[in-house]
């Protein structure tokens, strides 16, 4: 069963306000992390259009009668626990409202093109004059300087440029070989995660010193940094790593295999595990053969061994193999589709699915935060807002605008 949404009595960031001028994924992912931890996140969106991802469907959220709403599932993934305010920041009135909101905020997040907000007087230096201890985080494809600073950054392109696709995909000498992107926008998501960490560090520094600061986050920087040991392998050896698909360059067998009804992962880490693997498959001879008895020999003869193992694995179902290998102490696991993921008892026990009522009248199904904290657990009590859902509330309650002023702004198309 899906987890029941709860509102913890206290959250780590409930004393903070974030003014979110970002859209699509990297910036909103950072803002959602902060919102999950209790921050009041005010999402600024274009009147009449909103975040680009609101229109990136189908699929769309369905209302109580099962009809599609205007809320794309892509948008729902990155915008829970926020408030939505529609505002035309190209107008003088809109710029003034941003300045007023910034004065009451701790953090500003933005992902406009380099220099675009400066012409509106909404860049860091301008807003710093309004609030000297402001934390201001910019997210771009390539950063605020360097020869590529003016280029637009797209996750897919960054995965290629940053080296990720050079080590991801089937081996070039195998059928289907060649570069592959990840199944989700990893450079966007990881940039959102790094931005979250940077914002938290800047807030800690501010709390100690009273000093705000500027944060310059770039997708390309993050994509290069996150290659981890592949980077150091290259820097140590001077040899660029190659693609190995679902295999491992140094361990055999450490890869996927097709069973009679699906796929499994077998991650043999030593010779004893290998022996138990082939014994579970009724092929002890594949351990007794001196070509395969020890890992260095298996790596050397992988092209001979792997087809024999593949033939062996096809004789049982996915579940039969998992049961047999778990009993034998051989590391293994299924390759689940999302039906199987959300039906998994461990996923259910961890409360990763959360169902919330939505203003459309339907129910929005979300994935809750994976951060488990004993004293200040993340919240998941507010569905992603509809476009402009909180505009009047924020203008009236935070900034003291009258109903007449709000009506005039709406008449001008500012909100």
TrEMBL record:
<protein>
    <submittedName>
        <fullName>CaiB/BaiF CoA-transferase family protein</fullName>
    </submittedName>
</protein>
<keyword id="KW-0808">Transferase</keyword>
<dbReference type="InterPro" id="IPR044855">
    <property type="entry name" value="CoA-Trfase_III_dom3_sf"/>
</dbReference>
<dbReference type="InterPro" id="IPR023606">
    <property type="entry name" value="CoA-Trfase_III_dom_1_sf"/>
</dbReference>
<dbReference type="Pfam" id="PF02515">
    <property type="entry name" value="CoA_transf_3"/>
</dbReference>
<dbReference type="InterPro" id="IPR050483">
    <property type="entry name" value="CoA-transferase_III_domain"/>
</dbReference>
<dbReference type="InterPro" id="IPR003673">
    <property type="entry name" value="CoA-Trfase_fam_III"/>
</dbReference>
């Amino acid at each position: 069963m899906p987890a029941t949404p709860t509102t913890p009595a206290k959250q780590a960031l409930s004393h903070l306000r974030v003014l979110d001028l970002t859209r699509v994924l990297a910036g909103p992912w950072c803002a959602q992390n902060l919102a999950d931890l209790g921050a009041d996140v005010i999402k600024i969106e274009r009147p009449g259009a909103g975040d680009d991802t609101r229109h990136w469907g189908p699929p769309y959220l369905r209302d109580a009668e099962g009809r599609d709403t205007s809320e794309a599932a892509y948008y729902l993934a990155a915008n829970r626990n926020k408030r939505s305010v529609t505002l035309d920041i190209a107008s003088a009135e809109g710029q003034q409202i941003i300045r007023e909101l910034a004065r009451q905020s701790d953090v500003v997040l933005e992902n406009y093109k380099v220099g675009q907000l400066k012409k509106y007087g909404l860049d860091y230096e301008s807003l710093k004059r309004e609030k000297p201890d402001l934390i201001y985080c910019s997210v771009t494809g390539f950063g605020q300087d360097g020869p590529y600073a003016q280029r637009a950054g797209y996750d897919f392109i960054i995965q290629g440029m940053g080296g990720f696709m050079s080590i991801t995909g089937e081996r070039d000498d195998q059928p289907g070989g060649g570069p592959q992107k990840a199944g989700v926008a990893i450079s966007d998501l990881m940039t959102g995660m790094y931005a979250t960490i940077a914002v938290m560090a800047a807030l800690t520094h501010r709390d100690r010193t009273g000093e705000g600061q500027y944060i310059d986050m770039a997708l390309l920087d993050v994509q290069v940094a996150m290659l981890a040991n592949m980077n150091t392998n290259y820097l140590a050896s001077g040899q660029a790593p190659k693609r190995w698909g679902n295999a491992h360059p140094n361990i055999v067998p450490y890869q996927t295999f097709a069973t009679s009804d699906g796929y499994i992962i077998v991650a043999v880490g030593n010779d004893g595990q290998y022996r138990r693997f082939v014994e579970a498959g009724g092929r002890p001879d594949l351990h007794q053969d001196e070509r395969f008895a020890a890992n260095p020999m298996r790596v050397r003869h992988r092209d001979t061994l792997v087809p024999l193992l593949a033939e062996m694995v096809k004789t049982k179902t996915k579940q039969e193999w998992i049961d047999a290998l778990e009993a034998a102490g051989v590391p293994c696991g299924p390759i689940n589709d999302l039906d199987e993921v959300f039906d998994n008892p461990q996923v259910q026990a961890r409360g990763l699915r959360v169902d919330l009522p939505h203003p459309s009248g339907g129910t929005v199904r979300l994935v809750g935060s994976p951060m488990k904290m004993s004293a200040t657990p993340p919240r998941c009590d507010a569905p992603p807002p509809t476009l402009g859902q909180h505009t009047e509330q924020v203008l009236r309650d935070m900034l003291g605008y009258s109903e007449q002023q709000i009506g005039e702004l709406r008449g001008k198309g500012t909100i």
